[in-house]
Amino acid sequence: MLTVDFDRLAIGPSTKVIDVGCGAGRHAFEAYRRGADVVAFDRDGSELRSVETILRAMAETGEAPAAASAKVVLGDALSLPYADETFDCVIASEILEHVPQDDAAIAELVRVLKVGGTLAVSVPRWLPERVCWLLSDEYHANEGGHVRIYKASELRGKIVGGGMELTHTHHAHALHSPFWWLKCAVGVSNPDHPAVAAYHKLLVWDLMRRPKVTQLAESLLNPLVGKSVAMYFTKSRPTESEAAPGYSVASG
């Protein structure tokens, strides 16, 4: 289940991509399928071992082009171990809401992106997320859980302020909002509740079959209750004054 629209990323052979906070690897896998040189980056070693296993299987079965490459890297999003302007595309899907020092994380995402490259960021949308928080403390008040609810304008301002230009915004996963509201209402740690189990079965069926009826329903509902908001930015070349020695955001 992809949150980011890959058709907007121009990912193909030789494109250098990093998926920061890759989690289970869904976006890294898609970039690899499209022929990119991919880094799946996360702080969770257990998740990365699973991602590495799948990436290896993709290579062995020919699911990714032979010329493409993919590797997993364990590390901290606040200190990415790469030089400035290393990647053509940086993906950060559903991670910033987990990071207390989000400004520092955003600065790192921008730093490692090449001039002219694309940054794709997604976070939970304010309204669906607010409902989840109201229904359940367990949903967010846990180790590694969500530490904030973003308004789209707030996140956009943070990233644009870092020298990026917004190119597109959309919402995704409207069918997942009621699922999470239901889980929060009955208890996040109660996955066997009949209503939750039935809705989960529906979501799995939708993911596997992609029937037109649910695709149409989600496209109509996304602007209203899409669970996530995705934003796409391009890194602009700094002006002469910004590139000058001693320049800083504070001095500008």
Automatic annotation (TrEMBL):
GO terms for biological process: methylation. Residues 18-120 form the Methyltransferase type domain. Gene3D superfamilies: Vaccinia Virus protein VP39 (3.40.50.150). SUPFAM superfamilies: S-adenosyl-L-methionine-dependent methyltransferases. GO terms for molecular function: S-adenosylmethionine-dependent methyltransferase activity. Keywords: Methyltransferase, Transferase. InterPro entries: Erg6_SMT_methyltransf, Methyltransf_11, SAM-dependent_MTases_sf. It holds the Pfam family Methyltransf_11. This is Methyltransferase. It comes from Mycobacterium terramassiliense.
